[in-house]
């Protein structure tokens, strides 16, 4: 297993209990080889994309090179909105062998013990090139997906969007998704977001991103489900992990 010093960047293969940096005596943190099996808190996914934006600049981050980090950010904002509705904690798992684009994970304790809960999320971004939001929803609905997939439409062109109009337009489609959500920024001041379910129901929520991040601050940054093969599971808080940022 590889470790890295979060202070000076020294890398080390740790053997035994000695987990201090040989250079500066800071506690070393584990290096994750990639996204597979790592569950990130929404706060962590949002923090990572902010670093990508700071590093590469705004036009570049919309390219396919940063698709994983961008979609993790979209899934994270959506999951924080969902938490406002359900009260549950969610984690983001970046899926590198899509579909789906992203998995939103949670602990389902409804049977009286813990199960791995998964929401398979397909993400589509409504950019400035398409005049109407249905121009992105209709082509997605023409594809086939497993029955438990949901679609999250992220409005990134700043256009206003009427929930009722979208809900009515979606009614005339054969929808392959369990749910369709539309998520967009309402006001830059205070980073106010709005999201609503265009299919099937009328769930909706508005929230300030900074406030929901603050509410969620104590959630484990990195977690993993245990590796047992049984359906029952436990989630382990893995503390700080070094997952390289592109
Ligand atoms: Zn060090």
Write a compact overview of the structure shown.
The protein is α+β, with helices and mostly antiparallel strands and 246 residues long. The chain is built from six helices and 14 strands. The two termini are 21 Å apart.
Keywords:
binds zinc ion, globular, 26% helix, 246 residues, alpha+beta, single chain, seven-stranded mixed sheet
Bound molecules: zinc ion
Helix tally? 6
Q: What global shape is seen?
A: globular
Report the C-alpha radius of gyration, rounded: 19 Å
Structural class: alpha+beta
User: What percentage of amino acids are in beta strands?
Assistant: 25-35%
Number of domains: 1
Low-confidence stretches: none
Integer average pLDDT: 92
Main sheet: which strands, in order across? 5-6-7-8-9-10-11
- Report the major sheet: 7 strands, mixed
**CA-to-CA gap between the ends?**
21 Å
Helix content: 25-40%
Tell me the total number of β-strands.
14
Order of helices and strands: EEEEHHHEEEHEHEEEHEEE
SSE topology:
Elements: E1 2-4, E2 11-13, E3 29-31, E4 39-40, H1 42-56, H2 58-61, H3 67-86, E5 91-94, E6 102-108, E7 115-126, H4 134-141, E8 149-155, H5 163-171, E9 179-187, E10 192-199, E11 204-208, H6 209-215, E12 222-225, E13 235-239, E14 241-242
Parallel strand pairs: 3-14, 7-8, 8-9
Antiparallel strand pairs: 1-2, 1-3, 4-12, 5-6, 6-7, 9-10, 10-11, 12-13
Helix pairs in contact: 1-3
Bound molecules: zinc ion.
Zinc ion binds next to loops.
